[in-house]
């Protein structure tokens, strides 16, 4: 899984954001499902269960269109319970499944895309997402799936993963049925053309290569997907479906989001909030602290592999308590930070399988790793 103890950084809620989804936050605190809620006229949040996951649910958003139809942002995890929650939520808006005319997907993870194939059975909405994610969700043959599995194993061995971690497989995505393709492949700042709304796509790579937010300046809202959440930091990891340096991309995306305006955030998890710029500052600071911790771990263990570093840094549970799937995600997240430190000139790599890391000997003896990391953060807007 890419969400649980390791893949999400469990932070304290920012004191600088303003919670606007009060019923959602109350439900979150009580560990309950929030209600279907009309958060604005013609805009509903529909919780859909994520089974056996601390996040508990995804918030699907339903938008009434000027022509009497319904547009969805994301769909939910594919279970019978989740499907019923989505259908019941759509009915509570006064619409039927046949009214769904558009589905905009923030990114490829199955809690967001998972119910799309099921939704295609009773209706035929226009599907739209970014190409960098959409290309992985087309129908795959058995040979293609086997090739992805081998590539993932090799990638993990390069990071120093032990055999039981490297050989336990690749997460399977929900994919489109054979013959079905994405109708619209969105790019940055492209209008969504939803009647009655002024929505546009905002490309925010990092959590995934094709992650999108959807902003409507007239309505004063932005659907942030997993890019910005009020309390936790999304997992940003290297993997065969990612860009070469996903954390560098994420830091750049955060810097862009900081200046998007005072819009109310409609996230995919937890609850609605205001204070985008302050939340961005919190997340940038969080990653700088993590980069410093990882650099210190390499300073203390020259020649460490990514696996060695993963075992040395702190997680929200002791590393020994993490399951193999979670330890694999933790490893990939650590590697994303290593690549940023390398780009900043703080560490360098040697070897091929596995790659080993050392702190660069060009760093002045009296220049602390922490100050070097923070100083180099001033270039984060150009890290891509």
UniProtKB/TrEMBL annotation:
Top-rank lineage group of the source organism: Bacteria
InterPro entries, per database record: Metallo-B-lactamas, RibonucZ/Hydroxyglut_hydro, Sec-metab_biosynth-thioest, WH-like_DNA-bd_sf
Domain Metallo-beta-lactamase: 57-269
Coiled coil: none
Record-linked Pfam families: Lactamase_B
SMART domains: Lactamase_B
PANTHER family cross-referenced by the UniProt entry: ENDORIBONUCLEASE LACTB2, METALLO-BETA-LACTAMASE SUPERFAMILY POTEIN
Record's protein name: Beta-lactamase
Organism: Gordonia jacobaea
